[in-house]
Design a protein that fits this description.
By secondary structure, the chain is an alpha/beta fold. It has one domain: Amidase signature (AS) enzymes (Alpha-Beta Complex), CATH 3.90.1300. Helix content is 37%, strand content 14%. The chain has 14 helices and 13 strands. The protein has an eleven-stranded mixed β-sheet, sandwiched between helices. Helix 4 links the parallel strand 2 and strand 3 (124-129). The longest helix has 19 residues, at 31-49.
Length: 459
């Protein structure tokens, strides 16, 4: 490939995926240079951040070199874009560890369909990112290592897609894959100041673990801009139109800042940041009206039953179950009991979806905080008991699970900063509103641009 002389050696770390793909398609940049620069950035910074479980240095460079000679290069939407994949779906030739020492170290035989689509679009997989064991928690600390928040390494990048969020926030990759069963894309997006998009049921191939957490888990996107999120979403969903962001028009938006989980309190700074987003929306011509988001006790218990029972199913795939962490073993044991008691009941998700959409009958979107506080501690979770894990998870992230249980699309966008840490605002939409969520994210970004990467890395 012929490369424009003025761009040879140009540093692309920190560029958006959209910018990189445009330059690679035009022949102005070599995918090998782009990938090499991002691998060098990973090598320089990941020792401090811990985003990656596995870095595919040699394989990624080989794949980038092959892409440079691909006659289809000029038509590929993600041409030469380095991406990271959450380490709980298969990447051919690499182990899928799921954050667990009990998992098999054998390489996966083939790519997950989402990975196949990303590669077919020209993306280069530079590595697999760290998760908590079996992706159970909204923090990423486990037997295989701890991922840290690039804004403050003493804090978590969230979970369970914490490694992916940390990698994007630290500019190690411009976009990353995550998946989300109770908030595991949106929570890390909020913690790291990113856009985190979760589609509704059936929009993107799921196939996460054994049964995708009874259908609650969806593969999604972590990015620094709405345009990048839309581009990656369009590839993963196989719907090119998602990449074309339009204006959302005047919307009716319900605003709920009080936690739907009894006993969980939303920090006043988080409430203030989300209310500022609401003020921006009103100034743009949208109607924003306060409401109370309520998850009845029966729904909360049903969500718990699905969460526990899903862990039990995923644990059945582990090759050395005795090596699970104590907190995971306890969670799995409760899940097996709930399965025997048949507490995962048919129709529970459908009934909640009907009730949830009825609450939003007069609204196009629901706006809430993504998390109830800024990022909590990164370390020490392995030494804490199961009860501390559950209490901390509910206190930190009470807002996100309602959308998963209903099977509805949602997105988290940066809403500001508090004491040096990002705050996230979540939008939940009706079935089929994936494009609308991306459009409202872009509208907010256009009106209130956010810092795209952790400022500490600019020093």
């Amino acid at each position: 490939m012929e490369i424009a002389e003025s761009l040879v050696g140009l540093q692309t770390v920190g560029w958006t995926a959209t910018e990189i793909a445009q330059r690679v398609r035009s022949g102005a940049l070599s995918p090998v240079d782009v990938v090499r620069q991002h691998l060098q950035h990973i090598e320089a910074h990941d020792g401090r951040i811990g985003a990656f479980q596995c870095v595919r240095r040699e394989a990624a460079l080989r794949e980038a070199a092959a892409l440079a000679d691909d006659p289809r290069l000029a038509s590929l939407p993600l041409a030469g874009v380095p991406v990271a994949i959450k380490d709980n779906i298969p990447v051919a030739g690499e182990p899928m560890r799921s954050g667990s020492a009990a998992s098999s170290p054998a390489p996966s035989a083939s790519d997950h369909e989402v990975v196949r689509r990303l590669r077919a679009a020209g993306a280069i997989v530079v590595g697999l990112t760290r998760v908590p064991e079996l992706s159970l928690w909204p923090f990423t600390d486990g037997a295989l290592g701890t991922a840290r928040n690039p804004w403050n390494v003493e804090r978590t990048p969230g979970g369970s897609s914490g490694g992916s969020a940390a990698a994007v926030a630290a500019a190690m990759v411009p976009i990353a894959h995550g998946n989300d069963a109770l908030g595991s894309v949106r929570i890390p997006a909020a913690a790291c100041g990113l856009v985190g998009w979760k589609p509704g049921d059936g929009v993107v191939p799921a196939d996460v673990g054994k049964g995708s957490w009874f259908g609650m888990s969806a593969n999604g996107v972590l990015a620094t801009t709405a345009a990048d999120a839309a581009l990656m979403a369009s590839v993963m969903a196989g719907r090119a139109e998602l990449a074309s962001l339009g204006r959302p028009g005047a919307l009716r938006i319900a605003l709920a800042t009080a936690s739907p989980v009894p006993g969980a309190r939303t920090d006043s700074a988080v409430v203030a940041a989300v209310e500022q987003v609401a003020s921006v929306l009103r100034a743009l011509g949208h109607s924003v009206q306060a409401m109370r988001l309520q998850a009845p006790t029966g729904v909360a218990l049903a969500v718990f039953a699905h969460w526990f029972a899903a862990a039990a199913l995923d644990a059945d795939a582990l090759v050395e179950p005795a090596r699970m962490l104590p907190s995971t073993r306890r969670h799995v044991a409760i899940g097996r009991l709930m399965t025997r008691l048949k507490l995962v009941r048919p129709g529970a998700r459908e009934r909640w979806r009907e009730r949830f959409e009825a609450m939003l009958a007069d609204s196009d979107l629901l706006l809430t905080p993504t998390t109830a506080s800024t990022a909590i501690a990164a370390d020490g979770w392995m030494q804490k008991g199961w009860g501390a894990h559950v209490r901390s998870a509910l206190a930190f992230a009470p807002f996100t699970g309602t959308a998963n249980f209903a099977g509805l699309p949602a997105i988290s966008v940066p809403a500001g900063m508090h004491e040096g840490l990002p705050v996230g605002a979540q939008f939940v939409g009706r079935a089929g509103s994936e494009a609308l969520l991306l459009a409202i994210a872009q509208e907010i970004e256009r009106e209130r641009p956010w810092p795209r990467h952790a400022l500490a890395l600019r020093e």
